[in-house]
From TrEMBL:
Species, as recorded: Sorangium atrum
Residue ranges, compositional bias (Low complexity): 35-46
Key words of the record: Repeat, Signal
UniProt-recorded name of the protein: Sel1 repeat family protein
Matching PANTHER family: CYTOCHROME C OXIDASE ASSEMBLY FACTOR 7
Signal peptide: 1-24
Presence of keyword Hydrolase: no
The family this protein is said to belong to: Belongs to the hcp beta-lactamase family.
Lineage, opening ranks: Bacteria, Pseudomonadati, Myxococcota, Polyangia, Polyangiales
Keyword field contains Nuclease: no
PROSITE patterns: PROKAR_LIPOPROTEIN (PS51257)
Segments of this protein annotated with the region Disordered: 25-50
Length: 245
């Protein structure tokens, strides 16, 4: 499958007084009169524009089809992602996978990590539905590509998905070392699932040096982050570790 090439992916008040020559020199020129020598008059339109900030525009709601459609048309990129999710889910509007993926790709090209992530997930889901029957040729490569872009844009879940793809050789040759690096990046940011994945690699010596103590530390961190699997892996007896502080 050929992944489409993306385009790369804003004075106070004036007090007039007396007949002081100094004050007169500071006084702005009146309409129709030239400004004092050495000073340019400040256009009133410019002052008004600076004093009026643009109105705040909140993202559209997940079930607001009209709002998201209008927002996306007005170049509100995250609204495009939410709109794409509607077309992918089918609860608000009829399912249109191709339109959803086009919206995600547009948002990703504009720098939306969420758009890249949703597009990678869409390709991954397409691959899963194909059940290896060849109906999703190239979907694994595309899923890895978009998840890696999401990771680069700052999405922890993109790094996690890309790491798992490298670990299992989905979309690229298996590379446990690269997978470990991605898991470590987001484990340090507080992603419990990445900590567990990295813990497994240390326990097995795959892609990193085998270190049972480090593995337990990672499982314990995942436990403290609220993931039960981390608690079970960290406890040699199989009991959940209390407390998770």
């Amino acid at each position: 499958m050929h992944v489409r090439e993306l385009a790369p992916p804003l004075l106070g008040a004036l007090f007039l007084c007396g007949c002081s020559s100094a004050t007169a020199a500071r006084r702005p020129a009146e309409p129709g009169r030239p400004a004092p020598e050495g000073r340019a008059a400040t256009p009133r339109a410019a002052v008004s524009a600076e004093a009026a900030p643009p109105p705040l525009r909140l993202p559209c709601e997940a079930d607001d089809l009209v709002g998201c459609t209008n927002g996306c048309a007005d170049h509100q990129i995250e609204d495009c992602v939410t709109l794409g999710s509607m077309y992918l889910g089918g609860a608000i509007v009829s399912i249109d996978v191709e339109r959803a993926m086009t919206l995600f790709e547009k948002a990703c090209a504009e720098g939306s990590a969420r758009g890249c992530l949703r597009l990678g997930d869409a390709y991954h889901d397409r691959l899963a539905r194909a059940d290896g029957a060849g109906g999703a040729s190239g979907a694994d490569e595309a899923a890895l590509y978009w998840h890696a872009r999401a990771c680069h844009a700052g999405a922890n879940l993109g790094c996690l998905a890309a790491g798992r793809a490298y670990l299992h050789g989905q979309g690229a040759s298996a590379d446990p070392g690269r997978a470990a690096a991605l898991f470590q990046r987001v484990c340090e940011r507080g992603n419990a699932h990445a900590c567990v994945e990295l813990g497994h690699l240390h326990a097995e010596g795959e892609g990193v040096q085998r270190d049972d103590r480090k593995a337990v530390e990672l499982f314990t961190k995942a436990c403290k982050l609220g993931l039960d699997e981390g608690c079970l892996r960290a406890s040699r007896s199989g009991d959940v570790l209390p407390p998770r502080d």
